[in-house]
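pipeline: protein-struct stage 2 | run 1193 | histidine kinase
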Amino acid sequence: MNSADAQRDHLLSRMRLRIEQDIFVVRQFGREVARAAGMESQDQTRLATAISEVARRMVALGRDVEVAFFASAVQHPAVRVEMVSPITDGQEHLVPHLAQVGRLVDTMEVDDGDTGTTVRMSRRLPPGAPPLTRDRMTEIREGLAAHVPGTPLDELAVQNQQLISALDEVRAQRDDLARLNAELEETNRGVMALYHQLSEELEETNRGVVALYAELDEKSVQLRTASEAKTRFLANVSHELRAPVTAIIGLGRLLVDTSSSALDPEQSRQVELIRSSATDLLALVNDLLDLAKAEAGRMEPNWSDVDLRAMFGQLRGTLRPLATRPEVDFLVEEPAVPHLLSDEVMLAQVLRNLLTNALKFTATGSVRLTAQRVDDDVEFTVADTGAGIPAELHERIFEEFYQVPGAKPLNGTGTGLGLPYARRLVGILGGAMRVSSEPGIGSTFTVCLPLRQP
């Protein structure tokens, strides 16, 4: 034993093996040491078997084997056994035979030294074992000193009893294993049945999903076909209506011309009413035709460097006649961004539609157009103090022909096409439009366009 072991372990007993019958004695003694230290029955048998097997091998190599039993109370409490043989080259003879023995204990070492071959082995005590205090180790030493070993026949009887107990335990474990296998097999059958049921349900669900996708594809084709038919209808009807409506306007102009036959006041009023209605109808037809072109994807932007100052000045001049109410301030501020790469006609149409709508629905306050740079974009803002739009209708106002319930324009008529058309044009220009509005406060429409097109 080295000095570290001496400080850590406490000697319980020593004995010497001289003849083969001493192997039975050391086996009994090892089992008694394990019992006294607090090991369970099976661990007692394991340690005793390991000691007797090592003793048998060492006695076969040479006589006078010294056996010492120690108790370790530091960190992990354990019983340690040290067996020393005077044969100095015994390690190479012992190691091949002790592989199976090493499985019975927690640690095993075989060393050769000047005094002979030493085998050290240890077995830990179970967690519930009583602590190895100094008084208890003294009690264990006194008990071992008074221990009287039995005869080989007694040890054989003990081994037979241990073997019977081990066989009973093995049989019980085998029965438990058979029961667990039966339960596992039953569980597997249940799992397989559930798996087949889930597989069938999943297959049925997949068929339903496939059928649903097929129906959705069919509905998509139908919707696309209907949309294309609607676009063609709008384009054709609008085109066919423009000529007669224009003719009606022209005829009305001729009837009220001073060079023609004079009309009485009632006739003049009726002709003027015809001209006004025809003008409104022509505006609606033009809106329908423009919307049809946008939906059909036939509008391609003509990119150019747009002078925003000139555009804002033109909008200020052309829309000034609509701002006839003194209660409304019509403000077109100088743009903070002088130039923008865009389509001048489309951008002007978008801003004109937004300003026209704002002027139609603003009784008092102001209508304001501004433009400023935000990061790499330009934001055009049309803000008014009109009636406002409820939050739940912010998206619906961009539907074709939709008008806010109860909202009546102060001048002219509304078709419900200006905002949808403006939004489509903004999309063609690579931008986005958003609205912020609250009833009784007003509305703000923001058009965000990239400063430079890719």
